[in-house]
Design the sequence.
C-alpha cells in the first residue's frame, strides 16, 4: 500500500501527527456522549463512521437525549456544520483537475484539523491534494479509534477526567500556529468576540455569525492594505 501512495500523502500524514493528543480526548468525548444518551457501543461507532463530524456528533447526542424531533436534529447538525461550506470554498482551488468521483471521498474526510494542516502546508508542497488526503486519513483513523474507545470504555472512565476540556483546547491548538500576522490576529479577535457576544443564539448560530463577521473584517483589512500599496 505504501508504494501506491505519493510522498506528499505521507508528508501530510506526518504533519498531522502533532494534533493527535488533542484529537484523541475530543473523539473519546463524542463516543462517551453517544453511549450516555442511550446508544449501544456499536451504534455509537456506526454513528461516528456515518456522521463523522465532532461538534455535530455532540449536538446530535444532546438533542437525542432531550427527545428532539429527528428533523430538528438533522437541521441543527447541518447548521453547526455550515463552516465546512466556507472551508470547501477556500480549499476548492487546490482540487482543479481532480475528478468528481475522487472528490467525494476527499470531501468526506474534511475536518477542522485536516483543513488547518492543509492550509498551513509548506509553500514548497507541490501536491496539495495528496497532502490533504494524508492528513485526512490520519485524522479519520485517530478519530474513529478514539470514538470507539470512548464508546466501549465510557462507563469505566472516571468522571474526574476533564475530557470535555479537550474540545476547546483542540481548536485553540489549530488556531494559534496559523496566526502569524496582525491582520490574522485582528480577524481572529473579531470572530471570537462576536461569537462570544452572540452566544445566546439558538443552534450555535453564534459560530456562523462570528465566522461571517471575521470574513467581513478580513475583507476590510485587505482593502485597506490594497489602498496603501
Sequence:
Amino acid at each position: 500500500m505504501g508504494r501506491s501512495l505519493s510522498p506528499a500523502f505521507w508528508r501530510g500524514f506526518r504533519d498531522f501527527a502533532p494534533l493527535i493528543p488533542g484529537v484523541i480526548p475530543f473523539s473519546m468525548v463524542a463516543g462517551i456522549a453517544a453511549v450516555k444518551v442511550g446508544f449501544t457501543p456499536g451504534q455509537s461507532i456506526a454513528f461516528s463512521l456515518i456522521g463523522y463530524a465532532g461538534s455535530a456528533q455532540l449536538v446530535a447526542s444532546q438533542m437525542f437525549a432531550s427527545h428532539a424531533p429527528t428533523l430538528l436534529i438533522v437541521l441543527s447538525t447541518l447548521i453547526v456544520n455550515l463552516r465546512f461550506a466556507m472551508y470547501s470554498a477556500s480549499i476548492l482551488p487546490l482540487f482543479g483537475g481532480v475528478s468528481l468521483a475522487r472528490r467525494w471521498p476527499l470531501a468526506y474526510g474534511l475536518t477542522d484539523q485536516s483543513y488547518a494542516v492543509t492550509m498551513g502546508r509548506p509553500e514548497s508542497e507541490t501536491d496539495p491534494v495528496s497532502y490533504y488526503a494524508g492528513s485526512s486519513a490520519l485524522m479519520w483513523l485517530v478519530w474513529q479509534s478514539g470514538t470507539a474507545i470512548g464508546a466501549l470504555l465510557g462507563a469505566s472512565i472516571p468522571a474526574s477526567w476533564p475530557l470535555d476540556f479537550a474540545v476547546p483546547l483542540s481548536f485553540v491548538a489549530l488556531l494559534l500556529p496559523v496566526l502569524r500576522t496582525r491582520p490574522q490576529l485582528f480577524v481572529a479577535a473579531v470572530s471570537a468576540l462576536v461569537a462570544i457576544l452572540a452566544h445566546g443564539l439558538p443552534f450555535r448560530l453564534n459560530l456562523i455569525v462570528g465566522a461571517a463577521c471575521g470574513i467581513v473584517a478580513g475583507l476590510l483589512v485587505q482593502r485597506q492594505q490594497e489602498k496603501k500599496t
User: Anything to note?
Assistant: The mean pLDDT is 84. The radius of gyration is 19 Å. DSSP finds twelve helices and no strands in the chain.
